[in-house]
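Service request form, structural biology core

Requester: graduate student, group of Dr. S.
Request type: structure prediction, single chain
Budget code: on file
Notes: please return the result as structure tokens.

Sequence provided:
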Amino acid sequence: MEVTIIASIVCLLVGIACGYIIFRYVLKQKYNQAMKEAENQAETIKKNKLLEVKEKFLNKKSELEKEVAQRNQKLQQAENKMKQRELSLNQRHEELQRRKSETDKLQENLERQTALLDQKKADLDKMTEQERERLEAISGLSAEEAKEHLVESLKDEAKSQAQQYINEIVDDAKMTATKEAKRIVIQSIQRVATETAIENSVTVFHIDSDEVKGRVIGREGRNIRALEAATGTEIVVDDTPEAIVISAFDPVRREICRLALHQLVADGRIHPARIEEVVAKVTRQVEEEIIETGKRTAIDLGIHGLHPELIRMVGKMKYRSSYGQNLLQHSRETANLAAVMASELGLNPKKARRAGLLHDIGKVPDEDPETPHALYGAKLAEQFKEKPDIVNAIGAHHDEMEMTTLLAPIVQVCDAISGARPGARREIVEAYIKRLHDLEQLALAYPGVTKTYAIQAGRELRVIVGADKISDKETETLSADIAKKIQDEMTYPGQVKITVIRETRAVSFAK
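Core staff response, request fulfilled:
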């Protein structure tokens, strides 16, 4: 029994030993195989990395070669430019040397000619003196006596020619007198269109009695002068019973003067300081009235959303005329006509009415634009955020801008219809107002001038200057300068009187 157990143990040990040996052999085989695979993978990775490095090296080398080639090319170009510049400088230097040489030669030649001229001049003076002595001996007269003789003969000849020239002018004037007289009469007839002249240049202020006229005039005329200076109008106080005539080409000035006169007469206190105070107050009232008129017009026509400045311009139309036609009335009429026509054509009548009302806003700006009123009106409308079709209708109603919407021809046609009524417009009035405005602006451009007023239908220009800027003696020179400039640059009938006013004021307050 014990032998059997021992034999079993020995067999077990032998089996374990054999198994261990086999296991180590298999493990070694797997290890060797894994090592070979790892070596193969490492070799593959090494080869790939070497290939990548070589490729990057070649790319970098190619880029470096290109950069070097570009730099070499730039250097070559810079070298070529330097060579060209050096060649150009050499050529210029040679040219300067050549010119210097020519100049030196010319200078030498000039000096020789100058010396020769001096010699000839001395010879000529000597010959002239000899000839004068010979002539004096022949004529028996000295040089001074001969000169006086010649001057007297030239005077007589000049007088004769001047008289002949005057006679020719008089004869020509007689021949053309009839034609010129007809032209003047026709111009006068065109100007004196009674209703237009009254509407555009004259306002009659009615008073209760003629005693008020003396108070308006004031001591030595100081009140009327102060009122005219403050309002820029001409006030005519004549024998017309219970009436004072206010004359000015600007209707706003006339209205301010009329309202100021009304308040002054009603109050009874009329003196220069009070006049200036009332005129300033009335000016603000008229400005408010202009805005109110613009708002009322927009409401009457059913137009909403207008910019406040456009509303103010519409109100100013009340005091403006276009060829003798009230501008606000003309714009309202154009707006209504445009709305009716747009409705008939199936377009938006509200837009048409808006464009018709605003089409002439370029005629009432605060400053004097150089551009035509249609283009300036379009610019103003665009500035105050009106829509593009409204802007185009305003700018194109005189064909000064290309029409891009159907509103434009409608406004153009309605503008023509409104202005086509018999006697609605007279071009001479527009030219007359422009001439007066140009007169004022011409004088206002001079330094030291504070205000200018064209009065008496443009026959007199009053220029007010600052007492601290121009002296009494300089006013005479200023008056002559303005007269000459008007004579050179403007066309006008008759003559224009320029009156320069310089006034010194001292103001104090008792407290």
